[in-house]
Amino acid sequence: MSITIENLHKHFGAYKALDNINLEVNSGELLALLGPSGCGKTSLLRIIGGMELADSGKLLFHGEDVQQRDARERNVGFVFQHYALFRHMTVFENVAFGLRVKPKKERPNEVEIKRRVHELLCLVQLDFLHDRYPAQLSGGQRQRIALARALAVEPKILLLDEPFGALDAQVRKELRRWLRRLHDELHITSIFVTHDQEEALEVADRVVVMNKGRIEQVGTPDEVYASPATPFVYQFIGNVNLFHSRDHAPWTEQHGDAVAYVRPHDIDISRTAQDNTALPVEVKLVRAIGSVVRVEVATNGSSELIAIELSRERFDTAPLLLGDKVFIRPRQFRVFATGDQHELSAT
Amino acid sequence: MAQFRAHSVLPGFNLALGFTLLYLSLIVLIPLSSLFFKTAELGFGGFWDVVTSERVVASLRVTFLTSLAAALVNTFFGLVVAWVLVRYSFPGKRIVDALVDLPFALPTAVAGITLATLYAPNGWLGQYFATYDIKIAYTPLGIVVALTFIGLPFVVRTVQPVLADVEAEVEEAAASLGAGRWDVFRRVIFPAIYPALLTGFALAFARAIGEYGSVIFIAGNMPYISEIAPLLIVAKLEQYDYAGATAIAVAMLLISFALLLGINALQWWTSRRGAR
Fold first, then answer.
1. How far apart are CA A212 and CA B256, in angstroms?
2. Which residues neighbour A141 within 8 Å (Cβ) at sequence distance 6 or greater?
3. Do A72 and B179 touch (CB under 8 A)?
């Protein structure tokens, strides 16, 4: 089921949580809402789920306005960061809950409930835990049960609020790959909220980058990484070096007061200056991390470090030593004016 | 001894247990056992005669029935008060919160006199009931009012923290799964607060059984109708019938103990069923 959001606003007192949100979620896609904490991503999710009301704007499910519908009438599955499992119920009863509270004429009989719950528990690979209580499970297991519980009512839309936020790094990685596989199996329109860019880029079909209640960019993981629309996206996703026009005039001078954004792997290092745009620097740090070599350099008289990433292969053809005087040149960069943050050019 | 206690990493088991037993003995067991010794002067026949005399049986019935009614009223309305205090914020909430404890602080006699004045047929509140021919003061109904007053804090204070512990997220999860408000309460909130509610009920009930000060002013103290057992005990003391007084006390004690034990067993049983 597709979701359409038009001109959505939400205030908490004087605080602007959501500021004119427009978004189209395609049927069957897995969408990530990515942004720093306080950017409004969770508020947006809760409005879609019906736990919060928007101040103004439209929210349509498959072209149908659902603003006036209660959370229980939206047929939306919701997974919480802290699981929100029912503590006094077994795993089985937790998953069965949505089926048991259905109105009498829609409620499946006991045999059918049993079959459906076990089917779901098998789907999340935890059928052997059906008679345990939530307190006896690990975090990762609890979150999978929470997902099974949400899926039990066959929702048309699945919303996940920082689903892996409370888990440790190893489990988190495992679980997000598992979620991706699960989504490929079920094809249910899903939106998940995260502040972890790696998670968003790895799992989602499309990523919505949010900041201060606004959408900065919507695109595939590749698009938001390779061609960020705003300085914020540049800085939030991946690492980036900033070159101010007043310090590094040759790269930005044609644009006045501006900042050039350059990814660490988009910088070339050479022993000699090929033209007047090359910047003379001194090598301050060389560190090999796995397949990449991280080099930090500083321009003469400046303490600000510029990060450069080289592939090991490339580094080996022209090894660098601490204190080497070299020239750097961006292969690719993007310039934004400092004041209004408008994009000026891209090369 | 070795198999008597499980090994524990916490030090001081012997000392702590010894102290607990000594303390309980001094404060609870020795005074209560002297009650039994005094009663024993009557012999079993004498004891039985006292506690099965018509007036005593009637007073015991009044005591336990009004206490039960008051505890039930408190359980329901205490839950409502706790709910309001936990779930909503409104101006003056802290004052309301503080008001809840007031029945603990007020001398019970003052409460009794105040309530009796208010609910008397010509009192502020009593006059409205009087027009419908409902008498509150000087009837068992008045006893229930007084016992409700003194027992209010128990349910509120036991349920409040547990209710605050039920995360809003859990309720949202239930709602997103299609559960209506009643289903959310019945299947999610109530099971979580049920043990605390039962504890609050037991405390309010036990407190009401032993209450004397506030009741005697509002009860009217008519034998067989609105005379409570503690009053009968005091009456017997005033006639220097100490053994008779302790006999009634022992009867109350045994009934109360059986009831509280029953409530504890119920709690134990439900907490095992809903193991966490």
1. 62
2. A126, A129
3. yes
- B79 vs B85: CA distance, rounded Å: 10
Q: Which residues, including other chains, have CB under 8 Å from residue B213's CB and lie 6 or more apart?
A: B107, B108, B109, B111, B112
- Tell me how far apart the alpha carbons of residues A54 and A68 are, in angstroms, rounded to a whole number: 11
The tokens of B128 are what?
């409205």
Quote the tokens at residue A327. Answer: 């020239």
Which residues in chain B have Cβ-Cβ distances shorter than 8 Å to A149? 173, 177
Global confidence as pTM? 0.76
* Count of Cβ atoms closer than 10 Å to residue A299 Cβ: 17
The closest alpha carbon to A131, from A143, A121, A119, belongs to: A121
Q: What is the DSSP letter of A237?
A: S
Q: How far apart are CA B190 and CA B199, in angstroms?
A: 14
Comparing alpha-carbon positions, the chain B residue that sits nearest to A77 is B176
For the segment B4-46, what is each residue's pLDDT rounded down to a tens digit? 556 677 788 888 899 999 999 999 899 889 988 888 888 888 8
Using the Cβ of B273 and the Cβ atoms of chain A, whether some distance falls under 8 Å is answered with no
B188 shares contact with chain A (CB less than 8 Å) = yes
Binary contact (B178, A70; C-beta < 8 A) = no
- Can you list the positions of beta strands (E) in B3-100? none
The whole-angstrom separation of Cα A283 and Cα A248 is: 18
Crossing angle, helix B242-273 and helix B43-51, to 10 degrees?
Answer: 80
The CA-CA-CA angle for residues A182, A184, A190, to 5°, reads 75
Label the pairing between strands A157-161 and A76-79. parallel
Strand order in the sheet with A258-262: A241-244, A258-262, A334-337, A343-346
How far is B22 from B25, CA to CA, in rounded Å?
Answer: 5
Q: Does domain B44-275 have CATH number 1.10.3720.10?
A: yes
CB contact under 8 A, B172 and A71: yes
CB pair distance less than 8 Å for B172 and A78: yes
**CA nearest neighbour of B161 among B115, B196, B188:** B196
Which residue of B176, B184, B193 to mutate against A (max A Cβ within 10 Å)?
A: B176
Q: Running DSSP on this structure, what letter comes out for residue A124?
A: T
Distance from CA of A99 to the nearest CA of B (A): 8
* Cβ neighbours of B151 (radius 10 Å): 26
Asked if residues A142 and A83 have their Cβ atoms less than 8 Å apart, the reply is yes
SS3 A15: strand
Strands A279-289 and A325-330, bridge-based pairing: antiparallel
Alpha helices in chain A (DSSP H): 41-49, 91-100, 110-123, 139-151, 169-186, 197-203, 221-226, 231-236, 249-252, 312-317
- pLDDT tens-place string over residues B81-112: 999 999 888 999 999 999 999 888 889 899 99
pLDDT for the residue numbered B1: 47
Tokens 């090369």 correspond to: A347
